[in-house]
Amino acid sequence: MSMAVASSLRSLARRRPRLRLPAAPLAVPGARAAFLSGAAEEAAADAAAPAAPPAPGRKVLESFREEFEIGGRTIAFETGKIARFANGSVVISMEDTHVLSTVAAAKSSEPVRDFLPLTVDYQEKQYAQGIIPTTYMRREGAPKERELLCGRIIDRPIRPLFPRGFYHEVQITVNVLSSDGKQDPDVMAANASSAALMLSDIPWNGPIGVIRVGRIDGNFILNPTVDELGLSDLNLVYACSRDKTLMIDVQAREITERDLQAGMKLAHSEAIKCIDPQIRLAKRAGKEKKEYKISLISDTSYEKIRTLSEAPIQEVFTDSSYGKFERGEALEKITQSVKAKLEEENDDDSLKFLSKAVDTVRKQVIRKRIIEEGLRVDGRQLDEVRPLYCESNTYPVLHGSALFSRGDTQVLCTVTLGAPGDAQRLDSLVGPPTKRFMLHYSFPPFSINEVAKRGGLNRREVGHGTLAEKALLAVLPPENDFPYTVRVNSEVMASDGSTSMASVCGGSMALMDAGIPVREHVAGVSVGLVSQVDPTTGDISNYRILTDILGLEDHLGDMDFKIAGTRKGITAIQLDIKPAGIPLDIICESLEPARKARNQILDRMDQEISTARAINDGSAPRLATLSFSSDALRKLLFHRKKIEQETGARVSVSDGTVTIVAKTQPIMDKAIEKVEFLVGREIEVGRTYKGTVSSIKEYGAFVEFNGGQQGLLHISELSHEPVAKISDVLTVGQVLSLMCIGQDVRGNIKLSLKATLPQPRKKKDLESNGPLPSQEVGWAAVENMPSLGAADAEPSSSKHEDGTTVEPPAFSTPSVIIRSAADCDAQDAATGPKKRAKVAKSSPRPYKAPHERQEVRTATAKKTPVATKKTKKVKIEDPESNSLETSGSEEVPEHTASNTEDLKQSPVNFRSGSMKLGDVVTAKVYQIRAFGLVLELSDGARGMHKFEVNGRKEFEVGQELLVKCSSFNAKGIPVFSLVD
Asked: Which of 105, 260, 604, 668 has the greatest CB tally within 10 Å of its CB?
């Protein structure tokens, strides 16, 4: 029985692995009891073991989504899925670009400052486009300029809509989650931030709609892609509420005011399509607005401060003799006197809001005076521009400089030119990778007589500099015409309103002073607004538009409307406002006074400098771009630093091109010489090269140039005058500037020194045999006459007696045969000293076809040795071609009477390269001169025949004559006499 029970328990244990039974010795007495007690312990342990954890439940993220369409593209707002702890969070999507915007407010119910501490942080991380940052730490660093600018685009339309007196800290953080590179995320981020504020419990008088408008071929495009913006002449970012404009940012290519108004009206009608989806989303998922404490002064305290300060403030504002700082000191004294009276009364509530209350009183006084009397603080008319001062070339040592003053605002602009490699690298998600034109705006504390620390990138400085950069970018020449990288530095020397527009004016003059071929000047002016609001309806009941506003008018007014452009149209706009929106009609009305003021400023700038200076006249750097093959660039990369150290120039290599930047032309020439000598360039006929004489022969010199290539400088190409011995003129190692004048049929290079020298005055002797008094008149143009061998002649093939056709060389200039230096040395060693002396008197060997050389060798072997005479060199110069010279160095048997007779019988088979005295040939009359004839030989070469005294005969052009070579003139042109 016990065995059966044990067996069944073991089988059960095998089926249930958790029950592990101990092996009990059953043969021992009492074994059954022991076994039963062990099973009980196992069962107790099994019951005490923890149960398996339950499977996690499925969490459901409730999200809300609203979709709408603008310009044929679907845009969606979504909330509830990401960043659920934020006070408000929205993801906006357009195609494959997704942007997250979150908003949070400080927990304290008491405001800690007397202004709205709104912070907008816009971030573009490289993961959004699938890229690891190239920085050392492989992390994104400090905010880039583009991120600061996008943050300003979000901040400017949102800030005016917070309630008056709301001074609690608010932070908006925007992250680009993914980017397809097609859409610029900045406009999407502004709409998402508006939707996040609507969902939050922060009091805010939104929502807003933001849209981008472009124009291609006169047609407006809504929310254009990045590629479309590259073709557009307008980039308009427009933000608005349902009935008012909140922000405008424009970059354009001289768009007219009328076209801009049409674009803004279209943008307003389309931007309000973003408003209703945000309202619907807030109703579905938004929070109830929280009650925050508003910091507002009581009416009693305000009236007390107004009574004490209004009269003295009005007295200061009516005195136009005050300057900026004198007026500021006077107003500060008024504030201190009011403070002293409040301290005597122990009115702590009024003291707490003293500065804000006094500022409000100032605002009301100045606005009332402008609207009711039409008078400004400095006594100007509403549309009057302050006095102007313009100066260019302020510091001649700089590449370009200009000083511009408008009233008390003064800006110094400088221009620095650099190589294409100096362009700024942009690690942004969209747009071009580099930027070759940069304008950096600097606002030092001394410009407003203050003490402050200088930090890193400042949002205001970046924004003002970018605005001026956009304004000037429209008139810059294309990169292909002007490959320099340009940096403009705008240093504010004194500030009293609209320093960014002063930077546009000063930068335009500095660009012209640097020699940059800008098409015309660009000027900018800031327009302000002072308005009265109906307290019952909130609408503007009365207003005045101010041209060229002061800093005080900017602070106490309603808007700062900066407009820059040329006489043709607008190039950049930036609108900042303080109230909760301005009607679009008033903004459009402001364009006309801005245009008139802009033209007045342009007239004054043109009086100072109206066209670009020559870039080489001043201290602007010289820039040269050379193209080389990939193999040649490798050699240059190895020696680039050495060339820079030796010359002082900057050499950059990229994309198959070499860019050299030098401060002066001599440095540039030296750098180009070293680069070309090291790398070499494609040889061009007519181009001048610098080379070094490597060896000297009796008939010329071999010159090493262009990266180690060799060419022959023949003795006849040394000077316009005959040279007897080349060693008297040249030495080994001498550096020369030589012109390539051609190439022979073997591919050897011909160089000329005299082609780089000025042409000497023509001699009166044409012949060496005797003087010809009127030779200069009669034969002055013989060398200038075209010949069949000139560069402009059509190439033609020649036929030998055996019918073999010889094609002319591929180059245009007929040339002599040039052997390499190694061939010449080998020939000198083979011929020995005696024959070397003969070669020393001869020119290089002319090219002959192989069958011709064989015929000469055969004839020489059969005939008895005869006296040899070297052929005279025949040279015909043509200034339109490089030079024409034909010479023979082959030793040819001297003609006897018999073979002269044969030549008379068959004078057509003639080659001018072997012309010598006594040769009789047939020639045609090419031209009849006053003192002789120009004759054309059968192979196209030219000669001359001089009339004897009182022996002129009648000749006709084209008439064939039998003539005999009687002499050669100093230039090697044959002189013929008639054969009876």
From this structure: 260
Name which of 102-111, 125-134, 621-630 the model is least confident about: 621-630
* Alpha-carbon distance values, 639 to 332, 632, 635, 670, 691 (Å): 66, 11, 7, 15, 19
The predicted pLDDT at position 873 comes to 37
Q: Which of 392-401, 416-425, 747-756 is predicted most confidently? A: 392-401
From 794, 810, 696, 684, select the one nearest 745 (Cα to Cα): 810
Query: Which tokens sit at 759?
Result: 């042409």
* pTM score of the predicted model: 0.68
Amino acid at residue number 9: L
Q: What's the per-residue H, E or C state across 153-168?
A: HHHHHHHHHCCCCCCC
Structure tokens at 267: 């943008």
Residue 779: Cβ within 10 Å count: 23
Structure tokens belonging to residue 347:
């009115």
Distance CA 492, CA 499 (A): 7
Contact 472, 512 (CB under 8 A): no
DSSP code per residue over 26-40: TTSTTHHHHHHHHHH
Contact 531, 587 (CB under 8 A): no
Q: What are the residues whose beta carbons fall under 8 Å from the beta carbon of 583, sequence distance 6 or more?
A: 243, 244, 245, 540
DSSP string, 375-422: --TTS--TTPPPPEEEEE-SSTTSSEEEEEEETTEEEEEEEEEE-GGG
Q: How far apart are CA 530 and CA 711, in angstroms?
A: 79
Model pLDDT, residue 320: 81
Distance CA 784, CA 316 (A): 85
Backbone φ, ψ for residue 882 (5° rounding): -75, -65
Q: Is the peptide bond before 850 cis (omega within 30 degrees of 0)?
A: no
CA 777 – CA 762 distance, rounded (Å): 10
CA separation, residue 213 to residues 156, 221, 235, 432 (Å)? 18, 6, 6, 19
Q: Which residue has the tokens 């009293």?
A: 496
Rounded to whole angstroms, how far apart are CA atoms 961 and 957? Answer: 11
Q: Report how far residue 167's alpha carbon sits from residue 294's, in angstroms, rounded to the nearest whole number.
A: 7
CA angle 189, 195, 200 (to 5 degrees): 125
d(CA 441, CA 471): 13
CA separation (Å) from 691 to 640, 709, 711, 717?
Answer: 20, 9, 9, 15
Joined together, the tokens standing for residue 19 give 């029950």
CB 629 within 8 A of CB 681: no
Cβ 303 vs Cβ 297: under 8 Å: no
> Rounded to 5 degrees, what are φ and ψ at 440?
-110, 120
Six token digits for residue 90: 């929205």
Are residues 605 and 392 in contact, defined by beta-carbon separation less than 8 angstroms? no
What value does the mean pLDDT take over residues 887-904?
38
Residue 167's identity, in one-letter code, is: Y
Closest CA to 329 of 346, 347, 312: 312
Average pLDDT over residues 847-869: 35
3-class SS of residue 125: coil
> What ranges in 200-256 are assigned the alpha helix state H?
226-231
CB contact at 8 A, 927 and 785: yes
